[in-house]
């Protein structure tokens, strides 16, 4: 669906490259690019690996990218790699610093980024920031509520949200008195739910009909 909707802005291969084949991971600072390649080559053919380094000192920030030749390989790496890597799909290189990596890692480390740093700020390596009000008001969970002016088709909505790894179930509910759509989506991790909300809130499905995606309290400890 992402590829089809984006064809007007570039080729199929370009969209695959930017959206579906590059993953972003947290790694030990001792890792070299060869170490990173060695750890992730079991999931598919790697085009390149890169490690984010401090521009002043040249030291690793403990963050890296792995780009595969196929989207299926990137998805497999996200699903099967050790959870300590906190792997997610990377944003296109031309995105601003207000990207999903920025949001995802600041959430997972329970810190707020300062300025344009992404997401940690040099010295000291992990800085302490106060949460802003909008983050406090929004309770993160593994479950999402999806609203639409039009009714949903179970199989189509499942296929859409299954683009984000970790989908556990998609439950479409119908109100006999209205023609609107409502569904409950659950992922295996809060990280997947955060990414799905980031990608699909405001997404037009079908074209002209914007989806509203919000977190739904699932009783878990949101601090995780």
Instruction: Summarize the biggest pleated sheet.
Output: 4 strands, antiparallel
What's the rounded overall pLDDT mean? 75
Q: How many β-strands, per DSSP?
A: 8
List segments where confidence is low: pLDDT < 50 over at least 5 consecutive residues: 6-12, 96-101, 109-137
Overall geometric form = elongated
SSE-based structural type: alpha+beta
Biggest β-sheet: strands ordered side by side in the sheet? 2-3-1-4
Q: Give me the CATH architecture of the domain at 16-89, please.
A: 2-Layer Sandwich
CATH class of the domain at 16-89: Alpha Beta
Helical fraction: 25-40%
Number of helices: 8
- Computed over alpha carbons, the radius of gyration is 18 Å
Binned strand content = 15-25%
CATH topology of the domain at 16-89: Alpha-Beta Plaits
**CATH superfamily of the domain at 16-89, please?**
RRM (RNA recognition motif) domain
Helices and strands, in order, run as HHEHEEHEHHEHEEHE
- End-to-end Cα distance, whole Å, is 30 Å
Model description:
Among the domains are: 16-89, RRM (RNA recognition motif) domain (Alpha-Beta Plaits, 2-Layer Sandwich); 143-215, RRM (RNA recognition motif) domain (Alpha-Beta Plaits), CATH 3.30.70. Helices cover 29% and strands 22% of the residues. The protein contains 8 helices and 8 strands. The strands form 2 sheets. It has a 4-stranded antiparallel sheet with strand order 2-3-1-4. The longest helix has 11 residues, at 190-200. The protein is elongated and about 60 Å long. The model is unreliable at 6-12, 96-101 and 109-137 (pLDDT under 50).
């Amino acid at each position: 669906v992402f590829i089809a909707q984006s064809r007007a802005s570039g080729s199929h291969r370009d969209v695959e490259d930017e959206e579906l084949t590059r993953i972003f991971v947290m790694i030990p600072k001792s890792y070299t690019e060869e170490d990173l390649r060695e750890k992730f080559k079991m999931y598919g053919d790697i085009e390149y690996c890169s490690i984010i380094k401090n521009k002043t000192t040249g030291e690793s920030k403990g963050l890296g990218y792995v780009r595969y030749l196929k989207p299926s390989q990137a998805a497999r790496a996200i699903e099967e790699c050790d959870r300590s890597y906190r792997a997610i799909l990377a944003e296109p290189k031309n995105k601003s610093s207000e990207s999903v990596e920025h949001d995802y890692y600041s959430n997972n480390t329970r810190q707020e980024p300062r300025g344009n740093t992404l997401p940690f700020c040099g010295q000291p390596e992990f800085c302490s920031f106060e949460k802003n009000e909008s983050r406090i008001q929004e309770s993160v969970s593994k479950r999402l509520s999806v609203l639409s002016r039009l009714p949903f088709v179970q199989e189509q909505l499942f296929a859409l949200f299954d683009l984000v790894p970790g989908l556990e179930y998609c439950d479409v509910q119908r109100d006999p008195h209205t023609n609107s759509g409502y569904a409950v989506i659950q992922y295996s991790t809060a990280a997947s739910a955060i990414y799905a909300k980031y990608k699909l809130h405001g997404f037009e499905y079908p074209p002209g009909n914007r989806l509203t995606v919000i977190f739904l309290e699932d009783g878990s400890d949101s601090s995780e």
